[in-house]
Amino acid sequence: MSTKTNSLSKLALQKFKKNFWGVFSFYFIIFVGVISVFAYVFAPDNSKHANQMHVSIHSKAPGFSINMLMLPSQIKTKQGFLDKIFFGKINTVTEIPISEYNINGNRINYTEYASDGLKGIEKSYINKDKSIDTEALITTKTFYLGTDKYGRDLLSRILVGARISFFIGFVAVFISLLIGVFMGSVAGYFGGKIDAVIMWFINVTWSIPTLLLVIAITLALGKGFWQVFIAVGLTMWVEVARVVRGQIISAKQMQYVTAARALGFNNFRIITKHILPNIMAPVIVICAANFAAAILIESGLSFLGIGAQPPMASWGAMIKDHYNYIILGKPYLAIIPGLCIMFLVMAFMLIGNALRDALDVKN
């Protein structure tokens, strides 16, 4: 049995490798996953939530560069290395966009940047810290994808925002698997009144629009990062439960289940050790589709303002903040996060189709 299982697994893997779009989507998802985990390593603005605002340089085009005066702060912060990598740097430095400057000893005379051709306020700063080179306080920053309406680096917000869209899929699918497999297994294996009660609950849940149910759960649990993850997961278990139930109804009539009962194995072992491993192929395909659905639901919630809350970066929230710029001559502010959502969802759908073809024993 073990040799047969291994050979079937190898056959499925060979079929999957022959699917170009499936393999491409797999590597794309791995790439996005790495970006999500190490977003603050790759982001030009590695401050917490990539939330460095410069209102004077809002809505600038991709490739925009400007001199930035970095004023050190007397506030001392202690932050671990891993904390910086995974949660962003606690930035106490004040950044001031400047259009002109000159350095005279330890004094910097500068003109603050003002958009629309206006002249900014002229100011001066005296560097009293002899350990810091005065010239090092001025640096040139390039915003490769431009800035959003608050003057934040759009590229950094995109990279950090990938974390929410990517990880909500994992959390939501994990929750839906736990509930769906349990409910579907109990309903399909035992049948009778237990099946009737569970199916009634499934049908009631199924009849409520997904987005409406997520909004209700979110409002009950409160707005926040983990609340959205849990709310999305609690609405996606129904399809998993229906598929598992149907597969178990068919599988429990098989000879290997009858043999397991004859050997005196208890119901829990029969379900977990004998039936579930043989019916997981369609469940895996559903999980890939649920990944895509979870990303879309979270984006919709963020667009409505009840998803991840500011200043946390989210692709859906970025579209919400900038959708009106589509008719104001800067559509890329909304189109870029929209394309990110589209490509990630498409990758999960394509890998789902590839897994379906690879796990189909009839082909």
Automatic annotation (TrEMBL):
Keywords in alphabetical order: Cell membrane, Membrane, Transmembrane, Transmembrane helix, Transport
GO cellular component: plasma membrane
Record-stated family: Belongs to the binding-protein-dependent transport system permease family.
Classification lineage: Bacteria, Pseudomonadati, Bacteroidota, Flavobacteriia, Flavobacteriales
Membrane-spanning intervals of the chain: 20-43, 164-190, 197-219, 225-244, 275-297, 332-355
GO biological process: transmembrane transport
Membrane protein topology class: Multi-pass membrane protein
Protein name per its UniProtKB record: Peptide transporter
